[in-house]
Input
Amino acid sequence: MTWSQRFQSTLKQRHQDNLWRQRQTLQSAQGPRVTIEGQKLINFCSNDYLGLAEQGADDLQRAAKKWGLGSGASHLVCGHSEAHHELERALARHTGYPRALLFSTGFMANIGCIQALTQRGDHIFQDKLNHASLIDGALLSRAEFHRYPHLNYQRLESNLDKYTGDGLSLVVSDSIFSMDGDLANVATLASICADKDALLMIDDAHGLGVIGDNGAGVRSAFNLSREQLPVYVGTLGKSLGGFGAFVAGDNDLIDYLTQFARPYIYTTAIPPAVAGAMLGNLMRMRNNELRQTLQTHIQYFRTRSKLMGLPLMDSQSPIQPLLIGEETAALAISKGLRERGIMVSAIRPPTVPTGTSRLRVTLTASHTRQDIDLLIAALDELITPESGLRHSRKPKTIESEESSL
Output
């Protein structure tokens, strides 16, 4: 089989398995309402949880006048500007660490951290549902890689006892898991790591801005010290509404990553204008009214969905998945929503395990209650009792449920 035949065969099979992925080209700015192919849609796909992607245009314009477009080089050559430096200092203050280090993307931050921190003879332990970037970071390292069942900390402990030796033990987990929306018990992870002399790394991509005092993230939410959570990864492209990522920690950690994290050393720095503009959104992210609006939307959606018996998964985060099961059914419902002016992605393997395809609803502070009502009404039409996906309706009335919100 030639390389061309191999590619064609693999692509054909992906089509046949209903796993074909394709881009949706927006003709409008990111927000709770977007335009695709001339159709106006209510957007329930974005990770812009606080609605800040629509903010900061004036900040970006001012920063671009000062800094231009590109950074010109990697941070360690001549691409590190005062704008980058100030953003790193602000991110460190916000998350409560001595220092922070900017990366171009969250994927690169995770790969860079794991590769730099581990070597042959070390062991990496990860939750089985961790983000692809965390898994790839471990696979690309020279350490031994062990995965424990989702949130099964007893298995993690037994794995630490079984596999650790003289090398470093690195425990890695998402805070809020991107496809299930549930929250890791980071306090338990910190306790296990302290007991087993392991290093803890948390990717707080979906927690920063959503949880913790002033949106400071998972360490604040669990009231952990910097020593209990020594390696903290955050992104700028979700709640912060921009682009980029960072790692926060103590001086030795940041110095170590600066010297040895290859995706940091050998990559052009993010545009300094973007870094400068992010300072404004970092201040906006501290607005607790946005978080309160978001939490109200989450509880409202969950209450309505439970009353209707929709196949809601257990999540208190802005990520509210509806478990459908088969790829064809998830695609059909997603298409039906699109026909009704609502955008919700169907998530299928290999992103999630086979048989667990789902609708990944994401809520933001920019949505309105009317938006959510329209979504629920459409789901009520498309997920019929005959589909076998509906659960028994709860006996409480809508009015009594709403009074508890």
Summary: The longest strand covers residues 319-325. Residues 288-308 form the longest helix (21 residues). Residues 395-405 have pLDDT under 50 and may be disordered. Residues 50 and 244 are 17 Å apart (CA to CA).
